[in-house]
Amino acid sequence: MNLYKTSFRYLFALMVIGFLGSCSDLLNEPAENRAFTDETDYTQTENMILPLIGAYGEFYTRGWEGIPLISVRGDDVNAGGLGDQQDFAEADNYNYNKDYWMFNSLWEVNFRDIFHMESTIEQIELYEQHAPNTATAEQYKAEARVLQAFLLFQMSRVWGDMFIPPSPDPSDLLVTPISSKAEVMTYISQQMDAVADALPAVNPNKRSDIPGGVTKFTALAIKALANLELENYQAVADATSQIINSGEFALEPDFYELFKLKGKLNDEILLELQYSDFGQPSGDSKNYLMAFFGPQNWTPKREGASGGWGFFEPSMKFIKFMLDRGERVRLETSVLFTDRGIAEIKSDPAYTNLPDWISNVTPSGDRINDYARALFASGKHYLPSEQLTTGRTAYGSNKNMICIRYAEILLMHAEALTRGATSSAMSADEAVNLVRARAGMPALSGVSSQEVMDEKFAELAMEWGIRYYDMVRLENYSELSYGGRTFTADKIFLPYPQNQVDQLPALQSR
Amino acid sequence: MRMKILFTLTLCVMYTLSFSQGREITGVVTDAESNDPLIGVTVLVEDTGTGTVTDFDGRFTVTAETGNTLLISYTGYSPERVVVGTEDNYNVQLSFGSVALEEVVVVGYGTQRTKDLTSSITTIKSEDITKTPSSQAMQALQGKVAGMQIVSSGTPGSGPTVRIRGIGSFPGSGDAAPLYVVDGMFFDNIDFLNNNDIASISVLKDASAAAIYGVRAANGVVLVETKSGSYNQPAEIVYDGYYGIQVAQNVLKLANAEQFTDMALESGSEADISFIQNAMQRYGRSRINPNVPDVNTDWYDQILREAPMQNHSLSISGGGSNATYSIGGSYFLQDGILDMKNEYERFNLRSKVDYKATDWLTIGGNMLLSNSTQYAPAQDAWFRAYFAVPIMPVYDDMNEDAFPVNLANAQDLGYRGGQNPLSSTLFNNNRLKRRNLVANFYLQVDLIPEKLTFKSSYNHNYLSYNARNIDLPYFIGNGYQNPNSSISRTYENRSNQIWDNLLTFTEDFNRHNLQVMAGTSYRDEAWDQLRATGLNFPVDQEEAWYIDQAETIPVDNVGDNGARQYGLSYFGRVAYNYDHKYLLYGTLRADGTSKYQEKWGYFPTVGIGWVASQEDFFNVTGIDYLKFRASWGELGNDNVPASDGARTTDIITTAIDDQLVTGTTSLSVFSYLSWEVVEELNFGLTSYLFDNRLSLDADYYIRDTKNAVIPVENPSIGGTVRKNVGVIRNSGFELALNWTDNFSQDFRYYIGGNISTLKNEVVDLFGQAYVDGGSAEFRQRSIVGQPLLAFFGREVVGVYQNQAQIDADPVAVANNLEPGDLIYRDQNGDGEINDDDRVILGSYLPNLMFGGNFGLGFKGFDLSVSVFGQSGNKILNRKRGEVIFTSDTNMDADLAINRWHGEGTSNSYPSSKGIRKGWNQRLSTYFIEDGSFFRIQNVQVGYNLKGADLGSGMPDIRVYFTAERPLTLFDYNGFNPEVATGIDRQTYPIPAIYTAGLNVRF
């Protein structure tokens, strides 16, 4: 009995220990709720579009500070919003602080997506191995390349010499030499040549799989932009000619509405950042932070609509330039006036009598009230309160951000021709007059380079710093020395962000 | 008659049989010095498991037989053994002050006698834990354990930040919180326990003590024993409760309307001046000073309140010869001092039962149910109250469109933000319900009586977590509104199981004492979560606050997640000593885990000790006991994730042609991680002096985290990927002294103190010279050779006082500076001031902490006082630093009054104009402040009434008054200098608490 009891005790202890040994398999259980890239089934080639949609998702997700920083330095626009983000205002005054967070953020956000595009291409290639034909894969990869090129193009315009990513692994940049701006632009041009034919030759809004996505003409547009930076005007003329000759694009007749909801997937657009609140009063919403550009104080036509932050103020120089030209359509579209701003214009004896359509009430009926931080707000980033989806109040909700539009193509074409390039697509006069006609401006004949530049100023102000980069390219620094600023050649590029200099050997030697 | 005799005989025989253990032994236990009877002394009959405690007259009665040994022990007294002879009555005297050498401490999977320890363990008893009125037991340990930093949290229901011997993991990479082991079950925190549930808390500080917990032990281990009964103890019923009021302390003074107006007028900013004008137009001019708007709102005053707290607990414990039990319940309720739905309520029930089923089998069970509801504060109210301008009223009748209340809107004055902090407190309701069930069952088999035991115990912790966060809609202005009500729900379940099996062998032969333990542990930790958000639901009735009632449920906010991890461990311990003179200790734990790619880790430790005072040659007057200790050990930290980066594919949604579409995104930044390994060397000394009246514990340690998980920057794309490549060192010295004595029979006192130093240092960062933390504006940098995440910026040497000084300084000229701007030190002497002139400005970790306690008792009265302080840490006053984002808001009065406003007015603060300039907004010593403080932590006065004095059957009664944190002294410009991360942006103030309490013991 006792023996039995004692044995039982030991047996029990042994059983317990023996059982535990068999648990060790559990240590090899994989982690829960993770979809490892390695485990994706790439034979399901119908999923090949998923990484591409992801690429668009990343491309449309831009930091709110990125586009303002790219765009703020021209004589068309001022930082506005005095009171905070002092270093943003300093950048507008060409005093650059390499430690300023916006510089680093623009760098990192753009590079992150440049690398995202590399990963997207890798992912598509994994599907491609199983795809019955490779045309779709080639098109998708080409789209990612175009999106990447647009980001890289902006980076090089802002900083000049730039890295061309050698691989999908960011740490390879540690040993990558930096390329000159000319090399970057040449690289972009070549890349666009290489991918253009893989892309559908339609207006982006005619694409059925990804409406508003990249097409052959987006690639050609970026090629033209890169060559414009290179002052390779014949290449600009050639690329723009192809776009013009396609007949896929047309100017939106109503310039004002182009920058409103009507501009979404408009025939004029070659590339845009798409946003939406999906027509729902609440819930999912994808938006760029338009509030940054908006007036800080307003009485919206639709009650309850939110105002903006008061940054990004159209310059007095631009407004007077437009008044001098007798522009109405483009000035009314580009600038939101406040009473204080109007009074400030009138304080100049030359402008005491303003046209009576200049008012602090927008054509859509929103009243812009005075606010301390700025005299004017950007009209191209403004969505009338009555166009907001019912229930939504965020400033500019549901508005797209235009990146490249046909008017810019026409004007690039015209500029290239006035600088000696040849084209059979359209003459410089025809191109400029198309743009002018839409703006209600009389036709010109025998346009000069200067007239084209003025036209670009009038047409493209507040958009992507186009004016600034034009003036820099043409070394027309006197235009940039305005409103108390002095521009010199050493101010062209932003300094590399200190955070990047600390990490990347190639930047340290500079 | 014969029958009667037979019957009596039979009875006698039966009596002898059934009480063959022996006869009734009685006695009185008294204090050796005072001859006072000692109440509650434990009297155990060794080897029988029976025993009792003395009554109010120090009397005891036990059943024992000749030859048995009575072990008589009492906290704070040295125990005595009495061998039962022929006498039936034994009077025993215990000597006070020979302290706890014989006391048994919990060491993890077992116990050891204090005198045989080679490691550094500090134990805090129940009496000291319940002195602190708090929902958080760990709060009571603040200042009591040398080397342990406790940073209080003012939020009701939130636990303090606990750090044992510094920080060995990179903040953000791993959790620096210690492992809590409650009756054998592992926890990340003990927020669910009531102070009254706890019998003792032991802090295993060094690697040698903690190594038995292997991969979980790197941040130190805190062992918590809940209350249990004792064998042969009469039932004891105890009620303990208190009621108190919390009062905000050291409320930061904000600039008032006049000071604020002065600042704005001096700013030179047209905008700021126009806002003052707007305020005067809207609200009128002050009659006292017509240049100031007729509004003067003190926003802290608006959001603060005095808040009550209370705790009631009832416990019943005792035991018979075969069983012990302890059952208790408690209720805790605390309102927050932030004036909104902000409170913490908790109801706990617990029971613990042990039963000797046979002479070789003991079984037991232990259950604890904790049910709490926390209404979390809207923390941003603190932040907004600091910045809201004083020239705006709380409510504004002119704001007619406002809904549901006409709160004032700073935008109506021209300010960018609406500012009113009441939109945070009124329109938020964040409820968190936690239900925590802890169950423990065990079975212990004596394989060889007194020598070899086997114990199998199973623990289960089931935690359900139900969070409901409500944002109510409001409209205060176009730019200050929340059009959609939103409800977010998160349901989480956590089910953790541990099954431990232990074999313990104890053998004492000649003068050799040996204890060997071998064990296995199986762990299964499962967690799952479901969350969703709904928009626009009927807000008026709380019954409708469900996602089902919502108009829309955004797809992007629905999530489902889970994790399951398994662990398997084998461990062993050998503790050997020769004559309690030469001590040797070693443990080894092999930990297997499913979490990491690497499956098995091995964590050894070795400790040695030499009790010099046991040597024959040792004869130093005054030193009663002297022990030298040394130990080495390795620990693991598995609070780091299994991998970092994203070679995983993530789902992303985007808008294409106004349709929400789904895609995937991936980035090739990835690394597998493994646990961190901490290696520690500890040297210590334990001594008792002057007839055991003074005890001394001193330790020096060097603690290296060898493969710390540190962020390695991703070039160009930003962000970091973490890798096991850093080395972080913490080292320090700890000293604890306690003196206990009595002046007379009635008058006893004690005084104690502890002090600890900490040096935190980054030793290696994988070849990187530093790793940046914080943000670009408020940089914290971990530089090799410096503390982790030290504040990194410029050094202010003064303020430019006049134009001549500006003209003479090329730096000032180059940067268009004016009088009233800060002068920075040109650290590299290149004649320019830029980011290359940044230096380390200090660490948020204190390098010196000290605590003290003092107590005295006179007859029925007792008084205890404890103090706590720290120095060497810095605080980033980010409230002031926020000016970089919005420069037109309010500030604290100190800054407004002491600003530079003319030559000689200040050499440390910029002018009003300067405050708004980028030049003065760079992180500098201007924003970094000293976090040193000294605090009276706790004062308690009590009066004790013996039930016997009140009449037969009356309970013992204790009435007490507590002042918790009545006084804190510091220089920092904020509510309180306790800021866990060192960054003070919105910290819940730590209130003072005044309570009255009652303890009744039947």
From TrEMBL, chain A:
Keywords: Cell outer membrane, Membrane, Signal. It is found in: Cell outer membrane. One of its GO terms (cellular component) is cell outer membrane. Residues 268-481 form the RagB/SusD domain. InterPro entries: SusD-like_N, SusD_RagB_dom, TPR-like_helical_dom_sf. Pfam families: SusD-like_3, SusD_RagB. Residues 91-202 form the SusD-like N-terminal domain. Belongs to the SusD family. This is RagB/SusD family nutrient uptake outer membrane protein. It comes from Flavilitoribacter nigricans (strain ATCC 23147 / DSM 23189 / NBRC 102662 / NCIMB 1420 / SS-2) (Lewinella nigricans).
